[in-house]
Amino acid sequence: MKRPLRPEEARLWAIVTATVRPAHGRGPEAAPPEPEPLPAPAPSVVKPPPRFAGRTKPKGPAPRVKAASAPAPPPSPDRIEPNRQRRIVREREPLDRRLDLHGLTQDAARAALVGFLHRAQQDGVRAVLVITGKGLQGDGVLRRRAPEWLAEPGLRGVVAGVSSADRRHGGDGALYVALKRRV
Cα–Cα distance between 160 and 142 in angstroms, integer? Predict the structure, then answer.
């Protein structure tokens, strides 16, 4: 359920929409209704800080405050060993299977990828090609998320390494996935 816009959001949206021009060859759409003018904000009362009797400065050095750190980036899977990647690119180590994730939702793509990799390892496959696509502007969701999924703990016993595919196999829109031998 959508919430109604707050008055300051409506005012900001009106400013943004006033600067937008239609693309060449397209007519303007119906103008949105003018937002009502906002009432003047009530003056805020600032209370003076309380007065303390005695000392005004604390004793000793000021306590150190830890800066908030940015969240850690998601783990990335190991890279394929250079010699093995060269064999895959030159097709000396064949890509026995391919998985195309185009058109799938994130949940469906993740489930398909995990199942595909487990089945491939059970069948003794050593390298596969996973096609994610590049997305509309080169930054597709599946392209971004697939390496995160491949680095998950549940696939550590399956995935030996991951790297971007060669141009003839899909380039940035595909991944080579080297699989570990079945135990």
Answer: 20
What the chain holds in terms of domains, given with CATH numbers, is 82-179 (3.30.1370.110)
Give the ranges where 7-163 is alpha helix by DSSP (H).
Answer: 7-19, 82-89, 106-122, 141-150
Torsion of CA 119, 125, 126, 127, to 10 degrees: -80
Contact of 161 with 84, CB cutoff 8 Å = yes
Torsion of CA 87, 91, 92, 97, to 10 degrees: 100
Q: How far is CA 92 from CA 10, 78, 88, 106, in A?
A: 61, 21, 6, 32
Find, among 71, 123, 70, 57, the residue nearest to 96 by Cα. 123
- Kindly report the pTM of this predicted structure: 0.54
What are the CA-CA distances from residue 108 to residues 55, 76, 115, 146 (Å)? 65, 21, 11, 12
Q: For residue range 81-135, what is the model confidence (pLDDT) as tens digits?
A: 666 667 777 666 677 788 888 888 889 999 999 999 999 989 888 888 888 888 7
Q: Find tokens 């759409």 and name the residue.
A: 29
